[in-house]
Recover the amino acids of this structure.
């Protein structure tokens, strides 16, 4: 990083200097002058993720100089961690030392096990006499038990220059068990301007390699509202396209074929994603490949199945973007999830005993034919580009008699509530599952309306029971044995730093009755 780049990045991170000083003066922090660090290295906050009934992943990254990822050089640094039952960190139930290595940007991932089920826990890191903020998580209930209630939020599409994370500020006022994040956690685009008051400079080029993807995640993680949400709740995160590049499919970039350059670019982006998020690593090196599709139990009440719609998909049969459906789309040669993940999904639906089968995934599942503009015209990056794979997925839901399948979807920067059907063209076809498409946290800002283009299509798709294209926010879901309730939380603004959230309306899915009551 040049001196100029560094100075510009520091301008952006300027407020962060203030917060680090404030932290050092908080009671309980060590007042001894740190020998190893020029300033508190926990500038990017702390996070937890993927809770089980006995375990959790704890995350932080040492970044005393966030603008300069090489500031810590090649040192491997020991970082102590502890988990306690109280927020003053006195009743410690687990502790140890992890290492922050330069190969993984001095990130720390701790996989803690043997915790008590269904219990609140707090965690904290320290190194070189410096302490991190304290984070909170709740373990899942014992898998053989019923939880009375499960509450989670669903987030997606948080483009930083689009605006403030008003939605996360609203979210932290709740008592949530989890946050599902459905991708577009970061955007790779160059940043020419920002709807935020603080200048965002130093990002005039799009992210393409490990250094620039790391800086992108660093920029996002410096946001205080995002840090507060990560400190408050465990996240269950999957990526979509923009953590790498717009609308890619497997190893094929948009409008192009696979190449060694794109393969290397994708690997760098996946590594930076791992380095900045609290997820388990299933292979020795994140650059080999990162498996993010996974299942999490929430006692007998619910099961979360997280899809990866990006990494294994075949290239779009009818090309990228908006296009007429082609013959190839009606063959069996194409997959959205990859063949192995498809089998894994079906096997999971076969095995599940959970009352609610909740799927977190990226792109729109329901059909959206671009009528009245043109017959047989679809958005090919979504499941509409892979209609036979969608039919296989929904057949597996119906064949395995999944009791309450509910899909949560990201990507569209709009809100939809949909009945999912094996044949969307058949008005009499039964509804086999429910889909909620969650609004963007920020992407589009306050003034990009998606409604004027997509709204006129909706009356031609009666399985779409609710649509809103112009508002940002998130969804909050409350699950009991008898119903799943979704509160649609819209924010008043992402461009005004004092924006607020409110419930626009609520939707309900009753036990054994697929399709939301709107
Ligand atoms: Fe997006
Ligand atoms: Ca997307």
């Amino acid at each position: 990083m040049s001196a100029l780049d560094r100075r510009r990045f520091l301008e952006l991170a300027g407020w962060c200097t203030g917060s680090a000083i404030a932290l050092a003066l908080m009671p309980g922090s060590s007042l001894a002058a740190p020998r190893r660090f020029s300033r508190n290295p926990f500038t990017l906050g702390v996070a937890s993720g993927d809770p089980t009934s006995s375990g959790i992943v704890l995350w932080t990254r040492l970044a005393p100089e966030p603008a300069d990822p090489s500031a810590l050089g090649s040192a491997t640094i020991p970082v102590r961690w502890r988990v306690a039952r109280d927020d003053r960190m006195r009743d410690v139930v687990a502790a140890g030392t992890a290492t922050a290595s330069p190969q993984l940007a001095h990130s720390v991932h701790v996989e803690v096990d043997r915790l008590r089920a269904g219990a609140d826990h707090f965690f904290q890191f320290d190194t070189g006499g410096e302490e991190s903020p304290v984070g909170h998580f709740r373990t899942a209930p014992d898998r053989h038990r019923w939880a009375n209630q499960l509450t989670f939020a669903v987030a997606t599409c948080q483009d930083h220059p689009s605006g403030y994370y008003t939605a996360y500020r609203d979210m932290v006022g709740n008592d949530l068990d989890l946050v599902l994040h459905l991708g577009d956690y970061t955007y790779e685009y160059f940043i020419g301007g920002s709807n935020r008051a603080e200048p965002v400079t130093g990002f005039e080029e799009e992210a393409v390699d490990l250094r620039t993807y790391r800086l992108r995640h660093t920029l996002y993680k410096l946001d205080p509202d995002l840090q507060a949400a990560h400190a408050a709740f465990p996240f269950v995160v999957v990526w979509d396209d923009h953590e790498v590049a717009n609308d890619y499919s497997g190893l094929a970039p948009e409008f192009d074929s696979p190449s060694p350059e794109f393969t290397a670019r994708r690997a760098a982006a996946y590594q930076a994603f791992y380095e900045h998020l609290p997820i388990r690593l299933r292979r020795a090196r994140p650059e080999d490949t990162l498996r993010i599709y996974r299942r999490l139990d929430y006692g007998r009440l619910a099961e979360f199945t997280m899809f990866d719609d990006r990494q294994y998909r075949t290239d779009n049969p009818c090309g990228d973007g908006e296009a007429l459906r082609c013959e190839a789309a009606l063959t069996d040669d194409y997959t959205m999830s990859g063949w192995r993940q498809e089998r894994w999904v079906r096997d999971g639906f076969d095995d599940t005993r959970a009352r609610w089968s909740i799927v977190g995934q990226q792109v729109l599942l329901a059909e959206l034919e671009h009528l009245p503009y043109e017959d047989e015209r679809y958005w090919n990056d979504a499941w509409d580009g892979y209609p036979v794979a969608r039919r296989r997925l929904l057949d597996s839901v119906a064949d395995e008699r999944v009791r309450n399948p509910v899909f949560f979807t990201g990507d569209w920067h709009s809100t939809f509530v949909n009945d999912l059907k094996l044949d969307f063209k058949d008005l009499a076809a039964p509804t086999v599952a429910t889909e909620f498409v969650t609004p963007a946290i920020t992407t589009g800002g306050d003034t990009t309306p998606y409604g004027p283009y997509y709204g006129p299509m909706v009356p031609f798709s009666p399985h779409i029971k609710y649509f809103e294209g112009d508002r940002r926010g998130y969804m909050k879901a409350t699950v009991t044995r008898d119903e799943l309730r979704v509160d649609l939380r819209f924010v008043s603004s992402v461009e005004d730093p004092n924006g607020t959230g409110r419930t626009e309306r609520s939707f309900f899915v009753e036990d054994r009755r697929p399709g939301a009551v709107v």
